[in-house]
């Protein structure tokens, strides 16, 4: 068993069990969120300035390298797969199962989609559909204990570099982004992602590339602040250890079988 082989092992022991273990040994969760935001924002600016820092292979190692680079100053496990299953809100199906190889399977599907698509020939509508499909697979893989949103958004910026578009995440509200992402999760008992709700989002944030175009801001980061902690509860939710999940926005149902999916504690916990 690795050091991070249980849900609780990602956190400090009591009385600091509301805070995830981190490189700087910060024990206050608000201070950790503030440090995480500033540290990853700096690393993301470095990646935006020099994309060659990461090999663009569009596979699992590509995404892991992004996460490792962004979070190297924050978490010891930066770039490593989570060891525990996670879900978000009232989703009937959790993110990729760590016990069945689903993480690698979803990321392999995403790589296949990237490689099979002639990105340079796509118009805005076609780009929106193709990008939504890729992102839905990466989002469902949700390979890391924390920082999936920031890593996957950088990954999608790298994908967009193959097209005539760049992505301006500031053009979509955090509420719409989160709701659309949550709706793309497969139905219970199914493997297939449902990217429909993401198509208009990617179509809207696609901006014609110019020599001065720069990547937009991560909408999840815009919504996040040092006071917006969303650390999940431990598997035994009867223990109030201070790791309660933050309440997210209620979202309109994608269909009668898909109720609103705010952040919640379905399964072992929730994660970004």
UniProtKB/TrEMBL annotation:
One Gene Ontology biological process: regulation of cell division
Any GO molecular function: ATP binding
Biased composition regions of type Low complexity, renumbered to the chain: 219-230
EC number per UniProt: 2.7.7.108
Listed PROSITE patterns: FIDO
Renumbered residue ranges of the record's region Disordered: 212-272
Biased composition (Gly residues): 261-272
Keyword vocabulary terms for this entry: ATP-binding, Nucleotide-binding, Nucleotidyltransferase, Transferase
Record-linked Gene3D superfamilies: Fido-like domain
Alphabetical list of InterPro entries matching this protein: Fido (IPR003812), Fido-like_dom_sf (IPR036597)
UniProt enzyme class: transferase
The name this protein goes by in its record: protein adenylyltransferase
Protein species of origin: Glutamicibacter soli
């Amino acid at each position: 068993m690795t050091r991070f082989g249980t849900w609780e092992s990602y956190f400090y022991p009591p009385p600091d069990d509301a805070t995830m273990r981190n490189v700087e040994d910060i024990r206050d969760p608000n201070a950790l969120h503030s440090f995480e935001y500033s540290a990853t924002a700096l690393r993301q600016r470095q990646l935006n300035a020099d994309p060659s820092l990461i090999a663009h292979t569009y596979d699992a190692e590509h995404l892991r390298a992004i996460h490792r680079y962004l979070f190297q100053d924050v978490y010891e496990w930066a770039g490593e797969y989570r060891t525990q299953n996670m879900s978000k809100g009232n989703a009937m199906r959790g993110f990729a199962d760590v016990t069945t190889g689903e993480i690698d399977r979803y990321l392999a599907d995403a790589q296949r989609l990237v490689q099979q698509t002639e990105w340079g020939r796509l118009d805005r509508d076609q780009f929106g559909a193709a990008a939504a499909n890729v992102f839905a697979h990466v989002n469902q893989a949700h390979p890391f204990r924390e920082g999936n949103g920031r890593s996957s958004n950088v990954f999608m910026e790298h994908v967009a570099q193959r097209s005539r578009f760049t992505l301006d995440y500031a053009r979509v509200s955090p509420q719409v982004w989160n709701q659309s992402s949550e709706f793309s999760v497969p139905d219970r008992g199914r493997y297939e992602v449902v990217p429909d709700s993401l198509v208009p989002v990617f179509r809207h944030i696609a901006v014609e590339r110019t020599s001065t175009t720069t990547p937009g801001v991560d909408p999840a980061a815009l919504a996040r602040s040092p006071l917006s902690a969303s650390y999940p509860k431990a598997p035994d939710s009867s223990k109030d250890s201070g790791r309660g999940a933050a309440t997210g926005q209620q979202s309109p149902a994608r269909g009668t079988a898909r109720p609103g999916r705010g952040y919640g504690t379905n399964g072992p916990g929730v994660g970004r």
